[in-house]
Design brief:
Length: about 110
Amino acid sequence: MDRSPVPPARGATVRGALEAELASAPQTGLTTKELSGLVGISEKDVAGHLEHLEKSLRAGGAALEVIPAECLACGYVFRDRKRLSRPGSCPECRSTRIDPPAFRIR
Ligand SMILES: [Zn+2]
């Protein structure tokens, strides 16, 4: 079997690793912090790659599902939050103890 001597672009490799990690946690999902540790890139980079991964998943008929962030103090759920980053504080009680959003593939 011939193998291509050209390695895939670094970005594609990272996204493949993210996809593999997400696929391994279909129940609980993974936060950007967890993905950052698993794949070895910064949380900020994880968010950027997830946006691209979401597009490629959609093209393949799958989707990146966001499990919303939740306030640990009052239970407020950040349901309508579309951004992938972690909210700074709760709009209800101003607590900064926020359970961050998690991601999974469905
Ligand atoms: Zn709250």
